[in-house]
Every structure is written in C-alpha cells, then in structure tokens.
C-alpha cells in the first residue's frame, strides 16, 4: 500500500516549493498522538516553518460545521491562519435559496429510506456534508434527500460548478470536497505570503 503522507513528503522534498499545504480531516493532527503531523515535522521542518490548525467552515463564512486540519509549510516566512469567528453564521436557508434550475446537477437526486432521514433546519448551520445519501440528509421542508446542486450550495459553490460521473459518484465527490470557504482561506493566506515575499504587483491582479 502507498502511504500518501510519505508520498506527499517525498514530492515536497524533491520539488522544494516555497509553500506547501496539507488539507485533511482533523484526525490528521490528533490521531495516535499526532503521528501523521509528527512525520511531516520530522521530515520537513528543517527546511520549512510549519504551522497547523483545525478550521471550522461556518467560523470563516461557510454554511456547514465541517472541520478540516490545515498544515502550511513555508520557506518564505511563517504563515499563520487567522483565528476567525464570524457571526452571525450563514444558514441552510441562505445556501439553498440560491439554487435554481439553472444550476448544474439541479435534478440529481436519489430516494432515501424513511427510517434513516435526518432533516436539515433552515435557520441553522448545516451539519458536515459527507455522502448525504448514506445518512441521508433530508431537505428542510420536502420529503426527499438533497440534490447534488443543493449539497454543492451548502459546500459554498455556485451554479457554475459541475460534478460528473454516476449519481453516486457525483454525491461522493461533493461530500469529499473541501468547502469553498476553507479553500478560499488557504488561497488568501498563501497568496498574501507570496506577494509579500516577491513584492511583484503583477501577481496581485
């Protein structure tokens, strides 16, 4: 079996980028006394300044309670994620109100078993979006599971984002993804660090 952490470390060592980012489940930092994070620190901290944090989607402008571990290594100065807690939280209603028939994956929906339904609350933050067919997560007012477009909206994407494959694959891709808010935060802090280091105004366009 391929150890993905070891492979990531190998690729980073061979290519020596100015910045590397690992985005994973929170257990990446906490599992087995932090063995995965320790491996990264052991192999890369001689060359990189490494910071780590666990970020919750709704704290930084997202619609869900999804938590992700973010590890950033930098050769161009320490990069620290800001400690954000944005209030009020965005709600399920705000996300789903954007979805119209113009969205990709608007009609992508499967039938759920009544005994396993978990209904969303319009006026609350959404629980973590995984493969919602397996839970399943049910629409706040309609007796059906979410469409792929609705789940995509809760992940923070807009109508231009499209998932491909079978219906199950589309659901899995969406549930496995990084939320837009978390991805945007990573982009923001890494881009700012690169701009500061290189002082190139063209890059800020």
Topology, please?
Blueprint: H1 4-15, E1 19-24, H2 27-30, H3 35-44, E2 49-56, E3 67-74, H4 92-96, E4 118-119, E5 137-138, H5 148-154, H6 167-176, H7 180-198
Parallel strand pairs: 4-5
Antiparallel strand pairs: 1-3, 2-3
Helix pairs in contact: 1-3
Content of β-strand: 5-15%
Helix content: 25-40%
* Computed Rg: 19 Å
Strand numbers in spatial order across the main sheet: 1-3-2
Pick out the low-confidence regions.
none
Major sheet description:
3 strands, antiparallel
- Helix segment count? 7
Account of the 3D structure:
The protein is of the alpha+beta class. The chain is 33% helix and 13% strand. The strands form two sheets. Strands 1-3-2 form a three-stranded antiparallel beta sheet, with helices on both faces. α1 packs parallel to α3 (35-44). The termini are far apart.
For this entry, give a set of tags.
alpha+beta, three-stranded antiparallel sheet, two-stranded parallel ribbon, 7 helices, 5 strands, elongated
Brief rundown of the structure:
Helices cover 33% and strands 13% of the residues.
